[in-house]
C-alpha cells in the first residue's frame, strides 16, 4: 500500500524502532526562543550534558522583544531576564542565535523559511505550537514541551508515538478576494478546534496547489488551531522555486539530488488517510471570527450567530460566553462591528506578501481617525524588503504605525497590548480571551480585511471600499 | 537522574484530597527561567496559614509526602514536580494520582507510590502521633514500612525500572547513541545546517 507524505517523512527519520516502544526520530532542525528554552538548558547543565548538534539548532528572540526603541535595554524586567538567559545559554552551549538588532532576527517561524533552512522532507521542532507553519514545505514540523526541548538538545532525537493522518482536500479555485486566511478559518470552523486532535493534516487539491508559499504557511500555521499537531503540503514547483537560491538551500549538484528526493515525497495515489475532509473553494468568501476561539467564525457578509443556532449544549454555552466577552449581540451584522485597533503581523500573516496585500489596499487611503493600526513585520528581513519597496511609506502615509520585527500584539508579552474592552481586527492566529492583552477583544482576519477595516473603522472587505468609492463618486 | 532504590526519611501528613497543581505551585511561579528554586512556591498559598502542616516544626524536614486521593490534578505544569523535589520530597504516597502529574514525576525521578486509602489513614495517624517515625520506601521490594506498619505499593513497571536504573528520558535515549551516530553518518549531505 502507498504511503502518505507524513508517513514518508516519518519513515526516513527513524533512528530506532522497537515493538511496544515509541519510535525514536531524528530531528533535522531544532528552533528555540526565549520563553520555552531556559529550563531545558538548565536540565542539560545539571546533567553535565552538551547540545549534541549545535549546527542543527538555531535560536531567535521574538516573543518578548519590543517593537520600538530596540536600541535601548528592554524595559520590562521579566522580558529582559528571559532574553538575557537565552543569550547566555546560547553563548555557553555554542548555539547560533539571531538577537535583537541582528538582520536575521524575527519570529522563529518566519526566520526558518526565509533563509531556506526549512526544506521538504525535514523533521522540524520548536518549543512553540505554531511550528506547524513549516509544514508548508512538506516538512513534518510540530511544537514540543520544555522536557522535549531538553531531549532534542541532548540527543537530536525525540521518542514519538505514531499519529493518524487526515486529508483536507480543497477542490476548485478560490474566488477573487478570498485568501489563505479565509480558507483556514473556514476549515477550522468546519472541523472544529478539536477536530484535528491526534492527526497530522495534509492540505491538498487544486486550490492548495495554486497558493504561494507564503499563503501555504498561513494555512499550515493554523493547523494547531484545529487541534492538529502538524499540517503539511506536498512540495512542488512552487516550493522549489521559493527555495532556489536561498542561502541555506542546497546548491549545485546537491540541489539536483535534493529536488529528486523531494519529488518522491508527495502522497502516493493509493495511500489511505484515516480521515478525509472535502472543501469546495468556490463556495468560500472572506471569513472572520466573532468569538473567543478560532473555530467561532462566520463569513464577513453575515451576522453574529445566536446561541439558539447551536444544538450541542456545550457549543451553545460557549457562544453565550463568547458573546458576553466580545460585547456582541446575536444577529448583529458583522460589518457593523467597529474596531479600535488593527494589528497586521505575526507568524500567520507577517510576511512580505501579507504586507504587500495590505499596502495595496492602503495606498493613497487613510486609516480611520478613531482607529490605531500597527504594522509589525514578521522579521527584520521582511521589514527591510518592505522598506525597499516603499511599503513603509504607504503605511505611514495612511496613518499606521510602522514597527520593528517580533511577535508583538499577537500575544501581548511585550508592551504592545490591547486595553480591557478594546476591540481589534488582527491577522494573528488566536482570539482567546485576553490573548492580545487582558480584556482585549480579537477578531481574526486576513491582511486584506485588516487593511479595509482600518480604513472604514468597521469590519470590512476590500470590496466594501470599492462600493463606497462608487457611491461617493456618483453622489 | 539519580537512582532510586530505597529511601528512608520522616513523613508529612497532608490531609487533603484533590490537591491540584495550582495548589502545589501557583501560576505566578511559572514566569521563572530556572528549573530549581521552586521550594518557596510549593503550597505557597497554604503556607500563609501558620497551622498548615509544613509550618509545623515537627514536619519541616519530611521527605515523604502522604496525601489524600487524586493528588496532582489540574494543569500539566512540570513545575509541580520540580517544586516538590526542590523542597526535598523524594516520594509521594497516595491512593490515587492524576495521570499527567504521575507521568511528569516519573520523568523527573519523584516516586509516586499508590497504596490503599486505609493504609494512608493509618500512616497519617502514625506520623501525627509520632512525627519522628522513619518511613522507608523500598522500590526494589515495592514496600513501605513505618514503625509497625507495612504495605506494598503499586508503581508502573516501566517507571520503576527507570527509577531503579536512574534513567531519565534523555538517559534512555542515550543508551542508543550508537544508532543515532549511525543515522547521522547516513544523513544526506544536502540537509541544511544553521552555522
Ligand atoms: S507570532 Fe504569535 S503565534 Fe507566532 S510565534 Fe509569535 S506569539 Fe506565537
Short recap of the structure:
Chain A is α/β, with parallel strands linked by helices and 475 residues long. Chain A is built from 17 helices and 19 strands.
How would you portray this structure in words?
Chain A has 475 residues and is of the alpha/beta class. Helices cover 35% and strands 16% of the residues of chain A. Chain A has helices at 5-11, 38-47, 77-93, 108-115, 146-155, 180-191, 206-209, 213-221, 237-243, 252-262, 313-326, 346-349, 352-362, 380-388, 391-398, 447-456, 462-474, and strands spanning 14-16, 23-26, 29-32, 57-60, 97-98, 123-126, 140-143, 157-160, 164-171, 199-204, 230-232, 275-280, 287-289, 297-299, 341-344, 372-375, 401-402, 423-426, 441-444. Chain A has a five-stranded parallel β-sheet with strand order 5-4-3-6-7, sandwiched between helices. In chain A, strands 17-16-15-18-19 form a five-stranded parallel β-sheet, covered by helices on one side. In chain A, helix 3 (77-93) links the parallel strand 4 and strand 5 (97-98). In chain A, helix 2 crosses helix 5 (146-155), helix 13 (352-362) crosses helix 15 (391-398) and helix 16 packs parallel to helix 17 (462-474). The relative contact order of chain A is 0.13. In chain B, 31% of the residues lie in helices and 16% in strands. The two termini of chain B are 32 Å apart. The longest helix of chain B is centred in the middle third of the chain and has 13 residues, at 117-129. Chain B has seven helices and eight strands; from the N terminus they run E-E-H-E-H-E-H-E-H-E-E-E-H-H-H. Chain B is an alpha/beta fold and 195 residues long. The mean pLDDT of chain B is 93. Chain B has helices at residues 21-24, 79-87, 99-108, 117-129, 157-165, 169-174, 177-185, and strands at residues 6-9, 11-14, 64-67, 91-94, 111-114, 135-138, 143-146, 149-152. Chain B has a four-stranded antiparallel β-sheet with strand order 1-6-7-8, covered by helices on one side. A four-stranded parallel β-sheet of chain B has the order 2-3-4-5. Chain A binds chain B through residues 15-16, 24, 26, 28-29, 38-39, 42-43, 46-47, 49, 52, 54-58, 78, 81-82, 85, 96, 116-117, 119, 122, 145-147, 150-151, 154-157, 159, 248-250, 254-255, 257-258, 261, and chain B through 1, 31, 33-36, 78, 107, 168-170, 173-174, 176-177, 179-180, 183-184, 187-195. The structure holds iron/sulfur cluster. Iron/sulfur cluster (SF4) is lined by residues 62-63, 107, 109, 128, 130, 346-347, 407, 410-411, 428-429 of chain A.
Amino acid at each position: 500500500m502507498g504511503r502518505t507524505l507524513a508517513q514518508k517523512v516519518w519513515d526516513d527519520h527513524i533512528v530506532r524502532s522497537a515493538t511496544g516502544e515509541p519510535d525514536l526520530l531524528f530531528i533535522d532542525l531544532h528552533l528555540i526562543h526565549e520563553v520555552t528554552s531556559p529550563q531545558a538548558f538548565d536540565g542539560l547543565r545539571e546533567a553535565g550534558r552538551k547540545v549534541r548538534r549545535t549546527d542543527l539548532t538555531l535560536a531567535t528572540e521574538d516573543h518578548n522583544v519590543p517593537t520600538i526603541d530596540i536600541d535601548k535595554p528592554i524595559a520590562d524586567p521579566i522580558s529582559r531576564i528571559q532574553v538575557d538567559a537565552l543569550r547566555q545559554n546560547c553563548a555557553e552551549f555554542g548555539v547560533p542565535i539571531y538577537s535583537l538588532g541582528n538582520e536575521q532576527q524575527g519570529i522563529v517561524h518566519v526566520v526558518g523559511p526565509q533563509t531556506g533552512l526549512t526544506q521538504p522532507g525535514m523533521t522540524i521542532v520548536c518549543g512553540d505550537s505554531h511550528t506547524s507553519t513549516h509544514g508548508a514545505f512538506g516538512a513534518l514540523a510540530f511544537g514540543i514541551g520544555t522536557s522535549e526541548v531538553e531531549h532534542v538538545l541532548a540527543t537530536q532525537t525525540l521518542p514519538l508515538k505514531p499519529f493518524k493522518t487526515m486529508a483536507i482536500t480543497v477542490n476548485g479555485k478560490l474566488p477573487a478576494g478570498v485568501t489563505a486566511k479565509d480558507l483556514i478559518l473556514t476549515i477550522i470552523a468546519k472541523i472544529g478546534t478539536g477536530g484535528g486532535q491526534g492527526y497530522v493534516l495534509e492540505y491538498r487539491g487544486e486550490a492548495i496547489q495554486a497558493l504561494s508559499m507564503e499563503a501555504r504557511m498561513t494555512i499550515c500555521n493554523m493547523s494547531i488551531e484545529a487541534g492538529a499537531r502538524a499540517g503539511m503540503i506536498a512540495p512542488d514547483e512552487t516550493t522549489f522555486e521559493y527555495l532556489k537560491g536561498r542561502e541555506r538551500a542546497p546548491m549545485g549538484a546537491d540541489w539536483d539530488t535534493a529536488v529528486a528526493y523531494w519529488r518522491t515525497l508527495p502522497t502516493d495515489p493509493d495511500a489511505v488517510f484515516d480521515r478525509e475532509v472535502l472543501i469546495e473553494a468556490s463556495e468560500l468568501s472572506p471569513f472572520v471570527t466573532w468569538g473567543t476561539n478560532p473555530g467561532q467564525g462566520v463569513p464577513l457578509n453575515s451576522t453574529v450567530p445566536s446561541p439558539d443556532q447551536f444544538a450541542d449544549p456545550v457549543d451553545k454555552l460557549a457562544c453565550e460566553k463568547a458573546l458576553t466577552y466580545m460585547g456582541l449581540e446575536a444577529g448583529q451584522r458583522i460589518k457593523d462591528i467597529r474596531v479600535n485597533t488593527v494589528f497586521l503581523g505575526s507568524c500567520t500573516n507577517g510576511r512580505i506578501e501579507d504586507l504587500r496585500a495590505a499596502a495595496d489596499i492602503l495606498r493613497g487611503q487613510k486609516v480611520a481617525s478613531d482607529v490605531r493600526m500597527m504594522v509589525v513585520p514578521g522579521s527584520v528581513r521582511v521589514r527591510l524588503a518592505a522598506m525597499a519597496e516603499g511599503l513603509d511609506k504607504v503605511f505611514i502615509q495612511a496613518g499606521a504605525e510602522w514597527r520593528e520585527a517580533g511577535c508583538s500584539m499577537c500575544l501581548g508579552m511585550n508592551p504592545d497590548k490591547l486595553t480591557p474592552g478594546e476591540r481589534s481586527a488582527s491577522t494573528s492566529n488566536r482570539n482567546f480571551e485576553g490573548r492580545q492583552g487582558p480584556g482585549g477583544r480579537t477578531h481574526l482576519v486576513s491582511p486584506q480585511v485588516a487593511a479595509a477595516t482600518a480604513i472604514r473603522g468597521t469590519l470590512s472587505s476590500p470590496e466594501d471600499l470599492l462600493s463606497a468609492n462608487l457611491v461617493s463618486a456618483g453622489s | 537522574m539519580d537512582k532510586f532504590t530505597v529511601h528512608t526519611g520522616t513523613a508529612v501528613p497532608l490531609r487533603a484530597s484533590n490537591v491540584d497543581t495550582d495548589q502545589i505551585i501557583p501560576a505566578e511561579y511559572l514566569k521563572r527561567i530556572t528549573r530549581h528554586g521552586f521550594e518557596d512556591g510549593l503550597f505557597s498559598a497554604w503556607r500563609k496559614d501558620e497551622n498548615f502542616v509544613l509550618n509545623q516544626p515537627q514536619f519541616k524536614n519530611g521527605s515523604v509526602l502522604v496525601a489524600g486521593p487524586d493528588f496532582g490534578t489540574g494543569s500539566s505544569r512540570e513545575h509541580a514536580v520540580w517544586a516538590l523535589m526542590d523542597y526535598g520530597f523524594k516520594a509521594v504516597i497516595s491512593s490515587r494520582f492524576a495521570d499527567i502529574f504521575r507521568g511528569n514525576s516519573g520523568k523527573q525521578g519523584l516516586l509516586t507510590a499508590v497504596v490503599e486509602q486505609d493504609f494512608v489513614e493509618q500512616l497519617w495517624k502514625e506520623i501525627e502521633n509520632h512525627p519522628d517515625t522513619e518511613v522507608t520506601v523500598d522500590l526494589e521490594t515495592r514496600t513501605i514500612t513505618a514503625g509497625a506498619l507495612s504495605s506494598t505499593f503499586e508503581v508502573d513497571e516501566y517507571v520503576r525500572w527507570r527509577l531503579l536504573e536512574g534513567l531519565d528520558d534523555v538517559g534512555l535515549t542515550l543508551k542508543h547513541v550508537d544508532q543515532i551516530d549511525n543515522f547521522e553518518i547516513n544523513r544526506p549531505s544536502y540537509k541544511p545546517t544553521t552555522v
